Amino acid sequence: MTDTEGGVFEGSFGRWPLGVWQRVVASLTSAALLDDESAARLRRIRFVGALGVIGHPLYYAIWSYVFPQPYENVWLRALCTLLFLPLLFANRLSQYKWLPAYALFAITAGLPFAFIFFYLENAGTMVWAESVVIAVVILFHFSTAFAMISLISGAVVATMLFLAVGHAATAFPWYALLEQLPVLGFVVAVLVVIKIDRQILVEQKQRGVALALGTVAHELRTPLASLALTAQGIQRRLQGGVPADSPDLPALHQAIERMRTDVARANTSIELLLANSKDPQTVSTGWFDPHDAICSAIAAFPFEPGGRELVQIAPSAGVRVLGNAKLFEHVITNLTKNALEAIQRVGKGDIQIGYALAPQTVEVVVRDTGAGVSPTVLKRMFQPFFSYPAHRGTGIGLMFCSKVLRSWGASISCRSVEHEYTEFRIRFPQAR
Q: Which residues of 183-212 are buried (b: 16+ CB within 10 A; e: fewer)?
């Protein structure tokens, strides 16, 4: 894991070939940005932490005094409660590298391990059989890989402890265990099917949105091209037929420049829509200099008069990163557009684009000293179709940036203080 900005996990321990363990741990908090998905992961961790902190003491009392069971263990309950306590503060602890591994350990110990151990000690009673099923349902609120690894490892360790405390293999509740395995297997199968069905539904929605965006973008090109040609025609007529001393001439030239600016801005939005309609995984990637891409994006941006002077680009850091230069230009264009609008809202500020280098990473930092945003807006910054202010834009720009960067193994995060600044950090791994 890399460190984070704004209390949100960035990066992951790697893709599948680097090991199942890394992928399982990263599935807890692998979002590289402050988006709805990463916030949901942290909410799940806090939710499970609350269940453990409340549930273990509560059910110790219930199974000990209200409906006594053959076996209870106050020390194991207390240990599980203590393990779950830090999970309640997952948001505050999310900048620490050890939290994902700790969350995996605590959830495995407090749910499958503890519940299966109590199940064995209570000779497979119906109360504990149902409790194990509930633990499995909770586990599958995380990734399927995480749930399966946690369940299997918890079951193995619980069985080893059961034997280590003096029980023989003959003490196993074999009949109850064999009776419950088909039920447990069916529950797991249903939960896996539900997760797959949800993923398919999300992918279908994304494909539908991509098709709609592509269609809208292509349909807009024709009237914009016509508008640009009209502006050129008017300009030619002005150059050939209007007296140089005409009082209307400056206003007409100003109107033409405004039309050109609007057309350029609309074409920029169309390029963003078209790029958003494509799967970043299908786009070719290679090593490129981010400084060159930034300069190209800023040079092509349709600034209002005086707008270009607000943008300052630091000298090249002399590094290369892995990705697609053209798509990265769209990312910079979108961040620049947002920054200029924030400056326009408050009538002050500038934009600084710079670099921060680390042994294994390159960061591109886009910072504006405009309006900034509140913590509430910051939490939803990368949520699909969320725009701020509400009437501005389609809410796909930052979603596009996030999707593109993730496809390269890069990440984007945001920090902001309302009325002071907004800072985006784009982090590329394996700089060279």
A: eeeebbeebeeeeeeeeeeeeeeeeebbee
Q: 325 lies in which domain range? A: 280-429
Phi, psi of 124 (to 5 degrees): 70, 35
Cα separation, 249 vs 254, in Å, equals 9
Give per-residue pLDDT as tens, 365-394.
Answer: 999 998 888 888 888 887 776 777 665 655
96 CB contacts (<8 Å, ≥6 apart)?
Answer: none
Tokens of 170: 């003959």
Instruction: Say how many residues make up the chain.
Output: 432
Q: Are residues 295 and 154 in the same domain?
A: no
Residue 66 located in a structural domain: yes
Average the pLDDT over 151-159 and give the result.
93
- pTM for this structure? 0.53
Out of 172, 204, 228, a domain closes at 172
